[in-house]
Amino acid sequence: MKANLYIELLKSAINSYLYFGTDSAISNAKFFNNSKWLIPNALKPHTLCNRSQLDFLERMMIHLIESKVAGDFVEAGFWRGGNSIFMRGFLKVRGENRQVILIDPFIGGGTLSTCYVSNEQFDTWTNRLVSELEEVKTHFNRYGLLDDFISFCHGKISEIEFPNSLSKIALARLDVGSYESYSHALNKIHPLMAKGGCVILGDWHLESCRAAVYDFIRNNQLNALISELFKGDLADAHFFI
């Protein structure tokens, strides 16, 4: 019971529902409008995922644990760290000694892909939802979750080296916003994905990201069935390996 209360409170904290009374500040014109935040940096949510998305993430973590799918959890595109904070908090209360590995090519800045030309709104955002590594570490510390089970990998996804301790990936959540980044992320994680592992796809409303996923599945002749989740600007999808 206490563990469940902690998990529910954690969800409400990382998406700022506790403070704003909405679990999707980026969809509310009081907080975000015309691709710009209207609130100070310190008040921004730690994740852009709403309650339904976090509930789904929790269900997938439960499924992987109960199905005994071995491996660590990876998030590519972690922004302010909220989803990974939630993953670590969930694993800690469950007594699961799995690593949470965070990858973000936009730490300290980032460039747009040249592999896919589109007019998507995200491609016009100048800040690319950038955060700083030390700031994200501070967020983990505030939740009491910056420990030896957390690893950060930042830089170009194609050049990132995973920790030597990582042998298998059970869960990968991708939210990197471009065709190029999605392609590189999928190429990086796929060789390490455990059988029965789950890949959650953020940015599913972006044509370029969908194209990258479909191209990857086709080029690698994967028998992967993509299930779409939710609708609108915060659409997600997922598939199992």
Question: What does this molecule look like?
Answer:
With 241 residues, this protein is of the alpha/beta class. The protein has helices at residues 2-14, 17-20, 51-66, 82-94, 133-142, 179-189, 207-219; strands at 32-33, 36-37, 72-76, 100-104, 150-154, 169-174, 193-201, 227-229, 236-240. The chain has a single domain (49-240), classed as Vaccinia Virus protein VP39 (Rossmann fold, 3-Layer(aba) Sandwich). It contains 7 helices and 9 strands, in the order ααββαβαβαββαβαββ. A hairpin with a 2-residue loop joins strand 1 and strand 2 (36-37). The longest helix has 16 residues, at 51-66. It starts with a helix and ends with a strand. Residues 107-111 have low confidence and may be disordered.
Strand order of the largest sheet: 5-4-3-6-7-9-8
**Global outline:** globular
> What's the CATH topology label?
Rossmann fold
Helix-residue proportion? 25-40%
Strand content: 15-25%
Structural class: alpha/beta
Report the CATH superfamily.
Vaccinia Virus protein VP39
Following the backbone from N to C, one meets helices and strands in this order, namely HHEEHEHEHEEHEHEE
Which value, in Å, is the CA radius of gyration? 17 Å
The chain-level mean pLDDT equals 88
> What count of structural domains?
1
* Distance separating the two termini: 32 Å
Low-confidence stretches: 107-111
Figure out the total of helices.
7
Query: Judging by the overall fold, what is the CATH architecture?
Result: 3-Layer(aba) Sandwich
Class, according to the CATH hierarchy? Alpha Beta
Beta strands, count: 9
For the report, how would you describe the main beta sheet? 7 strands, mixed
